[in-house]
Amino acid sequence: MRFRRYALLMSVVLVCLLLLTIQTRGGGMGRAADVVSILTTPVQALLTKAHRGALALWAGYREWKSAWSENLVLRAENERLRVGSLQVREAQTENARLRRLLALRERLPLSTLAGEVIGRESGGWARALTVNRGLGDGITTQTPVIVPDGLVGRVVRVRPGASVVQLVNDPASTVGAVVHRTRAAGLVEGEPGGAIRFKFMARDGVGIIPGDLIVTSGQGQVFPKGLPVGRVVRVEDKGSALFHFAVLAPVADFARVEEVLLLTGETPVDLVALFRKDG
To answer: Smallest Cα–Cα separation from 164: which of 119, 221, 223?
Structure first.
């Protein structure tokens, strides 16, 4: 430690002597200032560069923070506008559905009651709906349920404030029907996979082709005559079998039904023309 102190002292003395020598030989303070400048200029330049870099870094951070905050605000505003747009489209879609339902209700020559779907049977495909009309509204079992496109099903269970509707694609459902074009009679049956088919007796000269409209026959005193049920997708040829089958596409989209009409009156009029006007 003592040696280091002596070395430090000697270094300071040597520096002082060096400066005095430069000053004495005619360089004056200018020469000494030059030497000091030469020694300090790189340090000052480095410090200045570091200072500027720090300022630039700080400015960049503040700009990033400001942009990040603005981005959060813009994202929140964009989400608000998106939700608002979805609500507007949903309201427009609902209004369009209700207008179609009201227009059909006004044209039908029988008493009806509007209802809203409040429940669906869970599973891979729907075969029953629950509507918000029940005993208090005068609903009874076997009440037909329709939408502007055609038949949905019938009420099979009535509660004080709700009713369970069996859809036409339920395997336990059968509906007396005819081919609108040829008047060939048969039954519309539900299948286990959720599809529907038209079972008819094979007769010579009575053809069924894809695109044919199947409507209720009006027999059986459950469904009025002429309610659209489905359109033929393909015909399954059973050869010489007594019965043939046609696969149908239901006119009603059971998964999207939200409002329905329950038919509380009876009419002998064929209703198919009213539905064709609506379509």
So the answer is: 119
Q: Identify the domain boundary among 107, 129, 153.
A: 107
- Burial-class residue 244 by CB neighbours within 10 Å (0-12, 13-18, 19+): buried
Its sign, for the CA torsion 64, 65, 70, 75, is positive
User: Which residue shows structure tokens 């609903």?
Assistant: 139
62 and 136 co-located in one domain: no
Hey, what's the torsion of the CAs at 136, 137, 143, 147, to 10 degrees? Answer: -140
User: Do 28 and 69 sit in the same domain of this protein?
Assistant: yes
Mean pLDDT by 10 residues, the chain (279 residues): 63 58 53 60 71 78 83 80 70 74 79 91 76 94 93 95 94 93 92 89 73 91 91 82 88 92 80 66
Question: Are 151 and 206 in a shared domain?
Answer: yes
Shared domain for 103 and 116, answered yes or no, is no
Distance CA 193, CA 125 (A): 8
Q: How many domains are there within the chain?
A: 2
Q: How far is CA 175 from CA 168, 196, 220, 255, in A?
A: 8, 11, 9, 20
Q: Tell me the whole-structure pTM to 2 decimals.
A: 0.66
